[in-house]
Amino acid sequence: MSSPGAPLASSSLAAPPGPAGSLAVGDGHVLHWSQAGDAGGLPALVLHGGPGSGHSPALWRFFDPARYRVIGFDQRGCGRSTPRGETRHNTTAHLIADIEALRRHLGVDRWLVVGGSWGATLALAYACRHPGALSGLLLRGLFVPSPSELHGFFQGAAARHPEAWARFAAPAPADRRAQLLPWLTDLFAGDDVALQLRATLAWRAWEHALAGLPPPPEPTGDALQQALDRYRVMAHYLAHGCWIGAQQGAAGWGDAAGLAGLPIQFLHGSQDEVCRPAAARAVQQGLPGSRWCAVPGAGHDPFHPAMAAHMGQALAGFAAHGRFPDGLGRDEPGAPA
Q1: Is the pLDDT at 212 greater than 90, yes or no?
Q2: pLDDT band at residue 260 under the 50/70/90 scheme
Q3: Sheet of strand 17-26: strand arrangement
Q4: Which site in 37, 118, 146, 233 is 20 to 30 Å from 12, CA atoms measured?
Q5: Cα separation of 212 and 208, whole Å?
Q6: CA–CA gap between residue 76 and residue 290 (Å, rounded)
Q7: Of the candidates 51, 20, 66, which has an alpha carbon nearest to the alpha carbon of residue 115?
């Protein structure tokens, strides 16, 4: 899922922009990438959420630009990658191949991969398929695209937020509200743009409600079209369970045997209602040697002060020692090997 929080007003770790470019990856898709920090620093790839959201340089603020070479890109159909909103030739397998293509294009041997929400989902899937390309894995607010978690997001949370859910479901016909995801999938695959825009705004407001954030300002012009494109891609991925067998636990992401010995740190807000902690914890427990840290008081917002502090601490420790600090989830390791 996406992380709808607004960035902090300022940060001592905010990195100035550096080189940027584009990379054609086939099937008509062209990725936009950018980087910041020290060109000779520790390479770190930041994977954005969604699916569909696009990369935000605000996420660079967690990194020390004197130590890291921070790289981000817009996934297929997202942000400044083209064609925007395209769902053809756009699956998790395509994105994993794109990440490898970008790594080779930028001349990176191994990189720390950092992902939040859907970005954490993609990061883990990539790591399972290309473990030799990673120096570490930092997963914040892991999204588990299992049938039960998708039901929890689209239907189950209605009991806790009845008024917000009623607004979320309002664009759907009454007889489709008991199964919103299939209706949204059909809607965004069709051509009723006016109804798509209504559903886009309702979905966006629902995410903010679950994240404990105030209602977002209503976008206009191209920003509104960008939001529609974002939720078109999201509906496409969620309708297919993101092509991950998440109901199988950690095994659903792929063969994790190659991750043995790789530093893996999970950070999860204890109050996260967008991506529920219990589901992510179950995945973590299936990864021997990985570490779990529940961040007290934080929800899904990456810029919550407690979560931002934990992210900064984790990244500073990794830059200094090549591993995550023992104080982050020290007493909660993954299942024994």
Answers
A1: no
A2: very high
A3: 17-26, 29-37, 68-73, 42-47, 111-116, 134-140, 264-269, 291-295
A4: 118
A5: 6
A6: 29
A7: 51
pTM of the model: 0.93
Residues identified as active-site? 117, 272, 300
Which residue ranges make up each domain of the chain? 18-146+244-321, 148-243
- Mean per-residue pLDDT, 178-194: 97
Q: Is 327 left (phi over 0), alpha (psi -120 to 50) or beta?
A: alpha
Q: Is 321 exposed, middle or buried (0-12, 13-18, 19+ CB in 10 A)?
A: exposed
| The pairing of beta strand 264-269 with beta strand 134-140 | parallel
What is the pLDDT at residue 300? Answer: 94
**Region 18-146+244-321: CATH code:** 3.40.50.1820
pLDDT at 335: 38
Q: Evaluate whether 212 touches 121 at the Cβ level (below 8 Å).
A: no
Pick the closest to residue 42 from 328, 317, 266, 313 (CA basis): 317
E strand segments, 144-273? 264-269
Structure tokens that stand for 9 in this block: 């007003």
